[in-house]
Protein backbone atom coordinates (compact mmCIF):
# COMPACT_ATOMS: atom_id res chain seq x y z
CA UNK A 1 0.00 0.00 0.00
CA UNK A 2 1.56 3.27 -1.18
CA UNK A 3 -0.28 5.89 0.86
CA UNK A 4 0.25 9.60 0.01
CA UNK A 5 -0.97 12.28 2.40
CA UNK A 6 -2.40 15.34 0.65
CA UNK A 7 -3.83 17.12 3.68
CA UNK A 8 -4.93 16.39 7.22
CA UNK A 9 -8.34 15.69 5.71
CA UNK A 10 -7.38 13.16 3.06
CA UNK A 11 -4.74 10.72 1.84
CA UNK A 12 -4.80 8.84 -1.45
CA UNK A 13 -3.23 5.69 -2.80
CA UNK A 14 -3.21 3.22 -5.68
CA UNK A 15 -5.52 0.21 -5.58
CA UNK A 16 -5.80 -1.50 -2.17
CA UNK A 17 -6.83 -5.01 -1.18
CA UNK A 18 -9.21 -6.13 1.58
CA UNK A 19 -6.15 -7.13 3.62
CA UNK A 20 -5.01 -3.47 3.65
CA UNK A 21 -8.16 -2.18 5.30
CA UNK A 22 -7.27 -3.18 8.87
CA UNK A 23 -3.96 -1.31 8.48
CA UNK A 24 -5.81 1.74 7.17
CA UNK A 25 -8.07 1.70 10.22
CA UNK A 26 -5.10 1.28 12.55
CA UNK A 27 -3.53 4.40 11.01
CA UNK A 28 -6.47 6.47 12.20
CA UNK A 29 -8.57 6.77 9.05
CA UNK A 30 -12.33 6.71 9.60
CA UNK A 31 -13.57 6.42 6.01
CA UNK A 32 -12.59 4.76 2.73
CA UNK A 33 -13.62 6.13 -0.66
CA UNK A 34 -13.19 4.23 -3.93
CA UNK A 35 -12.82 6.26 -7.15
CA UNK A 36 -12.19 3.27 -9.45
CA UNK A 37 -14.94 1.49 -11.36
CA UNK A 38 -15.20 -2.24 -10.75
CA UNK A 39 -13.75 -4.43 -13.51
CA UNK A 40 -11.17 -1.92 -14.70
CA UNK A 41 -8.34 -4.41 -14.13
CA UNK A 42 -8.16 -8.20 -14.05
CA UNK A 43 -6.44 -8.28 -10.66
CA UNK A 44 -8.71 -5.68 -9.06
CA UNK A 45 -10.88 -6.54 -6.02
CA UNK A 46 -14.45 -5.26 -6.25
CA UNK A 47 -15.64 -2.39 -4.13
CA UNK A 48 -18.00 -4.77 -2.35
CA UNK A 49 -15.01 -6.78 -1.10
CA UNK A 50 -13.35 -3.61 0.19
CA UNK A 51 -16.63 -2.47 1.75
CA UNK A 52 -17.05 -5.71 3.72
CA UNK A 53 -13.55 -5.40 5.14
CA UNK A 54 -14.10 -1.71 5.91
CA UNK A 55 -17.31 -2.32 7.82
CA UNK A 56 -15.59 -5.06 9.80
CA UNK A 57 -12.90 -2.52 10.73
CA UNK A 58 -15.46 0.12 11.71
CA UNK A 59 -14.87 2.37 8.71
CA UNK A 60 -17.49 4.17 6.64
CA UNK A 61 -17.32 3.82 2.85
CA UNK A 62 -18.29 5.65 -0.29
CA UNK A 63 -18.25 4.39 -3.90
CA UNK A 64 -17.64 7.23 -6.38
CA UNK A 65 -16.28 5.51 -9.51
CA UNK A 66 -14.71 7.70 -12.21
CA UNK A 67 -13.60 6.56 -15.67
CA UNK A 68 -9.90 7.23 -16.15
CA UNK A 69 -9.26 10.58 -17.85
CA UNK A 70 -12.89 11.63 -17.60
CA UNK A 71 -13.27 13.56 -14.35
CA UNK A 72 -16.33 15.75 -14.81
CA UNK A 73 -17.11 18.94 -12.90
CA UNK A 74 -20.05 17.18 -11.26
CA UNK A 75 -17.72 14.38 -10.12
CA UNK A 76 -15.57 16.91 -8.29
CA UNK A 77 -18.70 18.38 -6.68
CA UNK A 78 -19.75 14.90 -5.51
CA UNK A 79 -16.25 14.25 -4.17
CA UNK A 80 -16.27 17.52 -2.23
CA UNK A 81 -19.68 16.71 -0.78
CA UNK A 82 -18.47 13.24 0.24
CA UNK A 83 -15.57 14.82 2.12
CA UNK A 84 -18.09 16.90 4.04
CA UNK A 85 -20.36 13.95 4.81
CA UNK A 86 -17.77 11.29 5.64
CA UNK A 87 -15.97 11.25 8.99
CA UNK A 88 -12.35 12.16 8.51
CA UNK A 89 -9.62 11.64 7.84
CA UNK A 90 -10.60 9.98 4.56
CA UNK A 91 -8.60 7.37 2.62
CA UNK A 92 -9.34 7.55 -1.13
CA UNK A 93 -7.99 5.25 -3.81
CA UNK A 94 -8.17 4.45 -7.54
CA UNK A 95 -5.74 2.62 -9.84
CA UNK A 96 -2.78 4.92 -9.18
CA UNK A 97 -4.21 7.60 -6.88
CA UNK A 98 -4.26 10.21 -9.65
CA UNK A 99 -8.04 10.29 -10.06
CA UNK A 100 -8.50 10.72 -6.33
CA UNK A 101 -5.89 13.49 -6.24
CA UNK A 102 -7.54 15.17 -9.23
CA UNK A 103 -10.97 15.02 -7.63
CA UNK A 104 -9.61 16.52 -4.43
CA UNK A 105 -7.84 19.30 -6.38
CA UNK A 106 -10.96 20.31 -8.27
CA UNK A 107 -13.22 20.00 -5.24
CA UNK A 108 -11.02 22.39 -3.23
CA UNK A 109 -10.45 24.94 -5.99
CA UNK A 110 -13.04 27.37 -4.68
CA UNK A 111 -11.55 27.40 -1.17
CA UNK A 112 -7.78 27.01 -1.61
CA UNK A 113 -5.37 29.02 -3.76
CA UNK A 114 -4.16 27.20 -6.89
CA UNK A 115 -0.58 27.24 -5.59
CA UNK A 116 -1.68 25.55 -2.35
CA UNK A 117 -3.45 22.80 -4.28
CA UNK A 118 -0.56 22.26 -6.67
CA UNK A 119 1.95 22.25 -3.83
CA UNK A 120 -0.02 19.65 -1.85
CA UNK A 121 -0.51 17.30 -4.78
CA UNK A 122 3.05 17.80 -6.01
CA UNK A 123 4.39 16.90 -2.56
CA UNK A 124 2.30 13.73 -2.69
CA UNK A 125 3.77 12.85 -6.09
CA UNK A 126 0.84 13.78 -8.34
CA UNK A 127 1.10 16.18 -11.27
CA UNK A 128 -2.03 18.28 -11.77
CA UNK A 129 -0.75 20.10 -14.88
CA UNK A 130 -3.52 18.60 -16.96
CA UNK A 131 -6.27 20.25 -14.89
CA UNK A 132 -4.52 23.46 -13.89
CA UNK A 133 -6.90 25.67 -15.86
CA UNK A 134 -9.87 24.04 -14.16
CA UNK A 135 -8.23 24.54 -10.76
CA UNK A 136 -7.66 28.21 -11.52
CA UNK A 137 -11.27 28.42 -12.71
CA UNK A 138 -12.65 27.33 -9.34
CA UNK A 139 -12.71 23.64 -10.24
CA UNK A 140 -14.92 24.13 -13.29
CA UNK A 141 -14.13 23.53 -16.95
CA UNK A 142 -13.52 26.93 -18.63
CA UNK A 143 -16.04 27.86 -21.28
CA UNK A 144 -14.11 30.83 -22.72
CA UNK A 145 -11.40 29.55 -25.04
CA UNK A 146 -10.32 32.93 -26.45
CA UNK A 147 -6.66 33.74 -25.76
CA UNK A 148 -4.52 36.85 -25.96
CA UNK A 149 -1.27 36.10 -27.79
CA UNK A 150 2.07 37.92 -28.03
CA UNK A 151 5.51 37.37 -29.49
CA UNK A 152 7.06 37.75 -26.04
CA UNK A 153 5.36 37.60 -22.66
CA UNK A 154 7.22 38.91 -19.60
CA UNK A 155 5.93 37.83 -16.19
CA UNK A 156 6.84 40.55 -13.69
CA UNK A 157 7.03 44.32 -13.93
CA UNK A 158 9.81 44.94 -11.43
CA UNK A 159 13.36 46.06 -12.18
CA UNK A 160 14.13 42.97 -14.26
CA UNK A 161 10.84 42.91 -16.17
CA UNK A 162 10.74 46.56 -17.23
CA UNK A 163 14.46 46.57 -18.05
CA UNK A 164 14.29 43.48 -20.26
CA UNK A 165 11.15 44.79 -22.01
CA UNK A 166 12.98 48.02 -22.82
CA UNK A 167 16.09 46.15 -23.97
CA UNK A 168 14.00 43.99 -26.29
CA UNK A 169 12.15 46.93 -27.84
CA UNK A 170 15.39 48.87 -28.33
CA UNK A 171 16.84 45.90 -30.24
CA UNK A 172 13.76 44.95 -32.24
CA UNK A 173 11.16 47.73 -32.53
CA UNK A 174 7.76 46.39 -33.43
CA UNK A 175 8.17 43.19 -31.43
CA UNK A 176 4.81 42.35 -29.87
CA UNK A 177 5.65 42.31 -26.13
CA UNK A 178 3.41 42.10 -23.06
CA UNK A 179 4.29 42.58 -19.40
CA UNK A 180 2.06 40.80 -16.88
CA UNK A 181 1.95 42.37 -13.42
CA UNK A 182 -0.95 43.28 -11.10
CA UNK A 183 0.87 46.07 -9.24
CA UNK A 184 -0.02 49.75 -9.63
CA UNK A 185 3.28 50.99 -8.17
CA UNK A 186 6.87 50.17 -9.13
CA UNK A 187 9.51 50.60 -6.40
CA UNK A 188 13.21 51.39 -6.49
CA UNK A 189 13.95 48.91 -3.73
CA UNK A 190 17.71 49.63 -3.43
CA UNK A 191 16.70 53.05 -2.09
CA UNK A 192 14.94 51.66 0.98
CA UNK A 193 18.21 51.19 2.87
CA UNK A 194 18.79 54.92 2.41
CA UNK A 195 15.23 55.69 3.56
CA UNK A 196 15.87 53.68 6.72
CA UNK A 197 19.09 55.66 7.21
CA UNK A 198 17.40 59.03 6.86
CA UNK A 199 19.05 59.81 3.51
CA UNK A 200 16.15 59.41 1.03
CA UNK A 201 12.45 60.17 1.39
CA UNK A 202 10.35 57.07 0.74
CA UNK A 203 8.29 58.86 -1.94
CA UNK A 204 11.34 59.20 -4.19
CA UNK A 205 11.55 55.40 -4.50
CA UNK A 206 8.08 54.92 -6.04
CA UNK A 207 6.55 55.61 -9.44
CA UNK A 208 3.35 54.42 -11.10
CA UNK A 209 3.70 51.24 -13.13
CA UNK A 210 1.88 52.80 -16.05
CA UNK A 211 4.50 55.54 -16.36
CA UNK A 212 7.30 52.97 -16.71
CA UNK A 213 5.89 50.40 -19.14
CA UNK A 214 7.83 51.05 -22.38
CA UNK A 215 5.92 52.61 -25.24
CA UNK A 216 4.46 49.92 -27.48
CA UNK A 217 4.52 47.24 -24.75
CA UNK A 218 1.18 45.86 -23.59
CA UNK A 219 0.48 45.85 -19.85
CA UNK A 220 -1.66 42.92 -18.69
CA UNK A 221 -2.69 44.01 -15.19
CA UNK A 222 -3.24 40.62 -13.58
CA UNK A 223 -1.60 38.04 -11.37
CA UNK A 224 -0.30 34.77 -12.80
CA UNK A 225 -1.81 31.57 -11.42
CA UNK A 226 0.04 28.87 -13.38
CA UNK A 227 2.19 28.00 -16.38
CA UNK A 228 1.54 25.55 -19.21
CA UNK A 229 4.92 25.52 -20.98
CA UNK A 230 4.03 22.60 -23.23
CA UNK A 231 1.17 24.71 -24.61
CA UNK A 232 3.11 28.01 -24.56
CA UNK A 233 0.52 29.44 -22.21
CA UNK A 234 0.35 31.46 -19.00
CA UNK A 235 -2.84 31.07 -16.96
CA UNK A 236 -3.94 34.21 -15.13
CA UNK A 237 -6.15 34.59 -12.09
CA UNK A 238 -9.73 34.14 -13.24
CA UNK A 239 -8.54 31.54 -15.77
CA UNK A 240 -7.77 33.96 -18.57
CA UNK A 241 -5.03 32.56 -20.78
CA UNK A 242 -2.17 34.42 -22.44
CA UNK A 243 -0.29 32.59 -25.19
CA UNK A 244 3.30 33.32 -26.16
CA UNK A 245 5.99 32.41 -28.65
CA UNK A 246 8.67 33.21 -26.06
CA UNK A 247 8.41 33.72 -22.34
CA UNK A 248 10.55 35.66 -19.84
CA UNK A 249 9.90 34.98 -16.16
CA UNK A 250 11.02 37.58 -13.61
CA UNK A 251 8.43 38.16 -10.86
CA UNK A 252 11.02 38.58 -8.09
CA UNK A 253 10.89 36.59 -4.89
CA UNK A 254 8.54 36.22 -1.92
CA UNK A 255 9.26 37.85 1.43
CA UNK A 256 7.97 35.19 3.80
CA UNK A 257 7.08 37.28 6.85
CA UNK A 258 4.79 34.54 8.15
CA UNK A 259 7.74 32.13 8.47
CA UNK A 260 8.70 33.87 11.73
CA UNK A 261 6.14 33.25 14.45
CA UNK A 262 4.59 36.50 15.72
CA UNK A 263 6.46 38.75 13.27
CA UNK A 264 3.52 39.89 11.16
CA UNK A 265 1.56 40.93 14.24
CA UNK A 266 4.31 43.24 15.51
CA UNK A 267 5.82 44.73 12.33
CA UNK A 268 5.74 48.51 12.42
CA UNK A 269 5.32 48.70 16.18
CA UNK A 270 6.99 47.60 19.41
CA UNK A 271 10.34 48.63 17.96
CA UNK A 272 10.22 46.01 15.17
CA UNK A 273 10.95 47.26 11.66
CA UNK A 274 12.39 46.30 8.27
CA UNK A 275 13.90 48.16 5.33
CA UNK A 276 12.57 45.34 3.13
CA UNK A 277 9.16 47.06 3.06
CA UNK A 278 8.39 50.48 1.61
CA UNK A 279 6.02 51.43 4.41
CA UNK A 280 8.38 50.29 7.18
CA UNK A 281 11.68 51.87 6.07
CA UNK A 282 10.61 55.31 7.46
CA UNK A 283 9.82 53.59 10.80
CA UNK A 284 13.41 52.33 10.86
CA UNK A 285 14.62 55.92 10.76
CA UNK A 286 12.15 56.93 13.49
CA UNK A 287 13.46 54.18 15.75
CA UNK A 288 17.10 55.01 15.07
CA UNK A 289 16.58 58.70 15.87
CA UNK A 290 14.65 57.88 19.02
CA UNK A 291 16.96 55.24 20.52
CA UNK A 292 19.35 56.72 23.07
CA UNK A 293 20.22 53.54 24.95
CA UNK A 294 19.34 49.85 24.97
CA UNK A 295 19.80 46.85 22.67
CA UNK A 296 19.41 46.89 18.90
CA UNK A 297 19.14 43.61 17.00
CA UNK A 298 19.75 43.24 13.27
CA UNK A 299 18.76 39.87 11.77
CA UNK A 300 19.70 37.98 8.61
CA UNK A 301 17.93 34.76 7.56
CA UNK A 302 19.41 31.81 5.62
CA UNK A 303 20.38 32.41 2.00
CA UNK A 304 19.25 33.08 -0.64
CA UNK A 305 17.95 36.58 0.07
CA UNK A 306 17.47 39.77 -1.90
CA UNK A 307 20.63 41.88 -1.49
CA UNK A 308 22.69 39.89 1.00
CA UNK A 309 24.33 43.05 2.31
CA UNK A 310 21.10 44.87 3.19
CA UNK A 311 20.74 43.49 6.74
CA UNK A 312 24.17 44.81 7.73
CA UNK A 313 23.71 48.05 5.79
CA UNK A 314 20.90 48.84 8.22
CA UNK A 315 23.28 48.12 11.10
CA UNK A 316 26.05 50.37 9.79
CA UNK A 317 23.85 53.38 9.00
CA UNK A 318 22.04 53.08 12.34
CA UNK A 319 25.30 52.76 14.26
CA UNK A 320 26.84 55.72 12.47
CA UNK A 321 23.84 57.84 13.43
CA UNK A 322 24.15 56.78 17.07
CA UNK A 323 27.85 57.56 16.88
CA UNK A 324 27.07 61.04 15.55
CA UNK A 325 24.46 61.54 18.30
CA UNK A 326 26.94 60.48 20.96
CA UNK A 327 24.71 57.56 21.97
CA UNK A 328 26.74 54.67 20.52
CA UNK A 329 28.43 53.68 23.78
CA UNK A 330 24.99 53.25 25.38
CA UNK A 331 23.62 50.94 22.68
CA UNK A 332 24.28 47.20 22.55
CA UNK A 333 24.37 46.28 18.84
CA UNK A 334 23.88 42.60 17.98
CA UNK A 335 24.03 41.18 14.45
CA UNK A 336 22.10 37.89 14.40
CA UNK A 337 23.12 36.07 11.23
CA UNK A 338 21.79 32.64 10.24
CA UNK A 339 24.93 32.16 8.13
CA UNK A 340 28.50 31.62 9.17
CA UNK A 341 30.28 34.61 7.60
CA UNK A 342 29.82 38.36 7.61
CA UNK A 343 29.92 38.58 3.80
CA UNK A 344 30.23 35.86 1.19
CA UNK A 345 33.13 37.40 -0.75
CA UNK A 346 36.16 37.42 1.52
CA UNK A 347 37.92 40.37 -0.17
CA UNK A 348 35.41 42.78 1.35
CA UNK A 349 35.36 41.36 4.87
CA UNK A 350 38.43 43.19 6.29
CA UNK A 351 36.93 46.62 5.55
CA UNK A 352 33.57 45.56 6.97
CA UNK A 353 35.17 44.15 10.12
CA UNK A 354 36.79 47.52 10.78
CA UNK A 355 33.31 48.99 11.05
CA UNK A 356 32.00 46.11 13.14
CA UNK A 357 34.83 46.88 15.57
CA UNK A 358 34.34 50.64 15.32
CA UNK A 359 30.66 50.32 16.23
CA UNK A 360 31.40 47.64 18.86
CA UNK A 361 28.81 45.33 17.29
CA UNK A 362 28.67 41.67 18.32
CA UNK A 363 28.52 39.06 15.56
CA UNK A 364 26.28 36.10 16.34
CA UNK A 365 26.61 33.56 13.54
CA UNK A 366 24.27 30.60 12.96
CA UNK A 367 21.45 32.48 14.75
CA UNK A 368 18.18 32.28 12.78
CA UNK A 369 15.14 34.29 13.92
CA UNK A 370 12.15 31.98 14.46
CA UNK A 371 9.79 33.93 16.74
CA UNK A 372 9.06 37.44 17.99
CA UNK A 373 7.04 38.53 21.02
CA UNK A 374 6.54 42.19 20.21
CA UNK A 375 4.79 43.28 23.39
CA UNK A 376 7.48 41.61 25.53
CA UNK A 377 10.20 42.86 23.17
CA UNK A 378 11.80 39.44 22.94
CA UNK A 379 13.17 37.59 19.91
CA UNK A 380 13.83 33.87 19.76
CA UNK A 381 16.59 32.42 17.60
CA UNK A 382 17.43 28.88 16.57
CA UNK A 383 21.16 28.38 16.98
CA UNK A 384 22.59 25.82 14.55
CA UNK A 385 26.35 25.86 14.95
CA UNK A 386 28.31 23.22 13.02
CA UNK A 387 28.81 19.88 14.78
CA UNK A 388 26.59 20.88 17.71
CA UNK A 389 22.96 20.19 18.57
CA UNK A 390 20.42 22.85 17.71
CA UNK A 391 19.39 25.08 20.57
CA UNK A 392 17.21 28.16 20.97
CA UNK A 393 17.98 31.43 22.68
CA UNK A 394 15.64 34.30 23.55
CA UNK A 395 17.05 37.83 23.45
CA UNK A 396 15.53 41.07 24.75
CA UNK A 397 15.58 44.09 22.47
CA UNK A 398 14.61 47.74 22.35
CA UNK A 399 14.80 47.91 18.56
CA UNK A 400 14.98 45.14 15.99
CA UNK A 401 15.55 45.40 12.24
CA UNK A 402 14.34 42.19 10.58
CA UNK A 403 15.33 40.74 7.25
CA UNK A 404 12.54 38.23 6.48
CA UNK A 405 13.08 34.68 5.17
CA UNK A 406 12.73 34.61 1.39
CA UNK A 407 11.54 32.02 -1.11
CA UNK A 408 10.42 31.86 -4.72
CA UNK A 409 6.79 32.99 -5.20
CA UNK A 410 4.23 30.27 -4.59
CA UNK A 411 3.07 30.10 -8.22
CA UNK A 412 6.68 29.66 -9.30
CA UNK A 413 7.60 26.96 -6.76
CA UNK A 414 4.78 24.68 -7.90
CA UNK A 415 5.29 25.29 -11.62
CA UNK A 416 6.95 23.02 -14.20
CA UNK A 417 9.62 25.71 -14.60
CA UNK A 418 11.09 25.34 -11.12
CA UNK A 419 14.01 23.29 -9.85
CA UNK A 420 13.80 21.14 -6.71
CA UNK A 421 14.32 24.20 -4.50
CA UNK A 422 11.55 26.13 -6.22
CA UNK A 423 13.58 28.58 -8.33
CA UNK A 424 13.39 28.93 -12.13
CA UNK A 425 15.89 26.44 -13.57
CA UNK A 426 18.20 28.22 -16.02
CA UNK A 427 21.57 27.82 -17.65
CA UNK A 428 23.73 30.19 -15.63
CA UNK A 429 25.56 31.54 -18.68
CA UNK A 430 22.70 32.19 -21.11
CA UNK A 431 19.81 32.47 -18.58
CA UNK A 432 17.75 30.20 -20.84
CA UNK A 433 15.57 27.57 -19.21
CA UNK A 434 17.25 24.18 -19.09
CA UNK A 435 14.22 22.27 -20.41
CA UNK A 436 12.11 24.77 -22.35
CA UNK A 437 14.12 26.47 -25.10
CA UNK A 438 11.70 29.38 -25.58
CA UNK A 439 11.76 30.45 -21.92
CA UNK A 440 14.26 32.70 -20.14
CA UNK A 441 14.49 34.04 -16.62
CA UNK A 442 16.34 36.79 -14.80
CA UNK A 443 16.31 38.68 -11.54
CA UNK A 444 15.71 37.26 -8.09
CA UNK A 445 13.54 34.31 -9.16
CA UNK A 446 16.05 32.25 -11.13
CA UNK A 447 18.56 29.76 -9.75
CA UNK A 448 21.90 30.96 -11.14
CA UNK A 449 24.37 31.23 -8.20
CA UNK A 450 24.69 35.02 -8.30
CA UNK A 451 23.78 37.77 -5.85
CA UNK A 452 20.11 38.76 -6.01
CA UNK A 453 20.46 42.51 -6.55
CA UNK A 454 19.09 45.19 -8.86
CA UNK A 455 22.61 45.60 -10.23
CA UNK A 456 22.56 41.94 -11.28
CA UNK A 457 19.21 42.45 -13.03
CA UNK A 458 20.66 45.51 -14.79
CA UNK A 459 23.37 43.30 -16.26
CA UNK A 460 21.07 40.35 -16.98
CA UNK A 461 18.37 42.24 -18.91
CA UNK A 462 20.50 42.97 -22.01
CA UNK A 463 21.84 39.40 -21.96
CA UNK A 464 18.36 37.89 -21.99
CA UNK A 465 17.23 40.37 -24.66
CA UNK A 466 20.25 39.62 -26.84
CA UNK A 467 19.86 35.85 -26.53
CA UNK A 468 16.11 35.93 -27.14
CA UNK A 469 16.63 37.96 -30.32
CA UNK A 470 19.33 35.48 -31.34
CA UNK A 471 16.79 32.68 -30.90
CA UNK A 472 14.21 34.53 -33.01
CA UNK A 473 16.82 34.82 -35.75
CA UNK A 474 17.68 31.13 -35.53
CA UNK A 475 21.10 31.64 -33.94
CA UNK A 476 22.68 30.15 -30.84
CA UNK A 477 22.95 32.45 -27.79
CA UNK A 478 25.81 34.91 -28.10
CA UNK A 479 25.57 36.84 -24.82
CA UNK A 480 27.12 35.37 -21.68
CA UNK A 481 26.34 36.27 -18.05
CA UNK A 482 29.36 36.13 -15.74
CA UNK A 483 27.36 36.28 -12.52
CA UNK A 484 27.89 40.00 -11.97
CA UNK A 485 26.22 41.51 -8.95
CA UNK A 486 26.89 44.60 -6.90
CA UNK A 487 26.24 45.41 -3.27
CA UNK A 488 27.05 48.98 -2.18
CA UNK A 489 27.66 48.44 1.54
CA UNK A 490 26.81 51.70 3.28
CA UNK A 491 29.28 51.46 6.17
CA UNK A 492 28.71 55.05 7.28
CA UNK A 493 26.85 58.08 6.05
CA UNK A 494 29.16 59.35 3.34
CA UNK A 495 31.20 56.20 2.64
CA UNK A 496 30.50 52.90 0.92
CA UNK A 497 32.35 49.64 0.35
CA UNK A 498 31.36 48.94 -3.25
CA UNK A 499 31.29 45.16 -3.57
CA UNK A 500 31.19 44.02 -7.21
CA UNK A 501 31.67 40.35 -7.97
CA UNK A 502 30.61 37.46 -10.15
CA UNK A 503 30.41 33.68 -10.06
CA UNK A 504 32.72 32.09 -7.51
CA UNK A 505 33.38 35.41 -5.79
CA UNK A 506 35.50 36.75 -8.67
CA UNK A 507 35.94 40.52 -8.29
CA UNK A 508 34.39 42.41 -11.21
CA UNK A 509 35.00 46.13 -10.58
CA UNK A 510 33.34 48.60 -12.92
CA UNK A 511 35.79 51.40 -12.22
CA UNK A 512 39.58 51.74 -12.07
CA UNK A 513 41.06 51.35 -8.62
CA UNK A 514 42.24 54.97 -8.54
CA UNK A 515 38.62 56.09 -8.85
CA UNK A 516 36.85 53.54 -6.64
CA UNK A 517 38.70 50.81 -4.76
CA UNK A 518 35.79 48.53 -3.95
CA UNK A 519 37.58 46.76 -1.12
CA UNK A 520 37.84 50.03 0.87
CA UNK A 521 35.23 52.52 2.05
CA UNK A 522 35.16 55.52 -0.31
CA UNK A 523 33.32 58.80 -0.67
CA UNK A 524 33.17 58.26 -4.44
CA UNK A 525 31.13 55.07 -4.00
CA UNK A 526 28.73 56.95 -1.72
CA UNK A 527 28.21 59.63 -4.38
CA UNK A 528 27.57 56.85 -6.90
CA UNK A 529 24.92 55.28 -4.66
CA UNK A 530 23.27 58.50 -3.53
CA UNK A 531 23.35 60.69 -6.63
CA UNK A 532 24.16 58.63 -9.72
CA UNK A 533 22.53 55.20 -9.42
CA UNK A 534 18.91 56.36 -8.87
CA UNK A 535 18.74 58.35 -12.14
CA UNK A 536 20.58 55.52 -13.91
CA UNK A 537 17.86 53.17 -12.66
CA UNK A 538 14.91 55.34 -13.69
CA UNK A 539 16.28 56.93 -16.87
CA UNK A 540 18.70 54.34 -18.26
CA UNK A 541 18.11 50.79 -16.99
CA UNK A 542 14.30 50.93 -17.23
CA UNK A 543 14.50 52.61 -20.65
CA UNK A 544 16.83 50.20 -22.40
CA UNK A 545 19.93 52.39 -22.15
CA UNK A 546 22.56 49.86 -21.12
CA UNK A 547 25.18 51.99 -19.34
CA UNK A 548 28.00 49.70 -18.17
CA UNK A 549 25.78 46.75 -19.05
CA UNK A 550 26.60 45.82 -22.63
CA UNK A 551 26.48 42.01 -22.95
CA UNK A 552 29.70 40.04 -23.07
CA UNK A 553 29.57 38.29 -26.44
CA UNK A 554 30.81 34.95 -27.71
CA UNK A 555 30.93 33.81 -31.30
CA UNK A 556 27.73 32.16 -32.47
CA UNK A 557 28.13 28.52 -33.35
What keywords describe this structure?
single chain, alpha/beta, Protein-Tyrosine Phosphatase, Chain A, FAD/NAD(P)-binding domain, 3 domains, 23% strand, sulfide:quinone oxidoreductase activity, quinone, TIGR01244 family phosphatase, FAD binding, transit peptide
Q: What's the CATH superfamily of the largest domain, by name?
A: FAD/NAD(P)-binding domain
Percent of sequence in beta strands: 15-25%
Number of helices: 15
Structural class: alpha/beta
- Mean pLDDT equals 93
Rg, Å, rounded: 27 Å
CATH architecture of the largest domain: 3-Layer(bba) Sandwich
How many beta-strand elements? 29
Q: Number of folding domains?
A: 3
Question: Share of helix among residues?
Answer: 25-40%
Shape: globular
CATH topology name of the largest domain, in short, is FAD/NAD(P)-binding domain
Poorly predicted ranges: none
Largest sheet: 7 strands, mixed
**What is the class of the largest domain in the CATH system?**
Alpha Beta
Please report the distance between the alpha carbons of the first and last residues. Answer: 52 Å
Structure description:
With 557 residues, this protein is of the alpha/beta class. It folds into 3 domains: 4-136, Protein tyrosine phosphatase superfamily (Protein-Tyrosine Phosphatase, Chain A), CATH 3.90.190.10; 149-253 and 408-553, FAD/NAD(P)-binding domain, CATH 3.50.50; 257-406, FAD/NAD(P)-binding domain, CATH 3.50.50.60. The protein contains 15 helices and 29 strands. Strands 6, 7, 10, 11, 12, 13 and 24 form a 7-stranded mixed β-sheet that branches. The longest helix has 19 residues, at 454-472. The protein is globular and about 85 Å long. The two termini are 52 Å apart. It holds the Pfam family Pyr_redox_2. Its cofactor is FAD. Residues 2-110 form the Beta-lactamase hydrolase-like protein phosphatase-like domain.
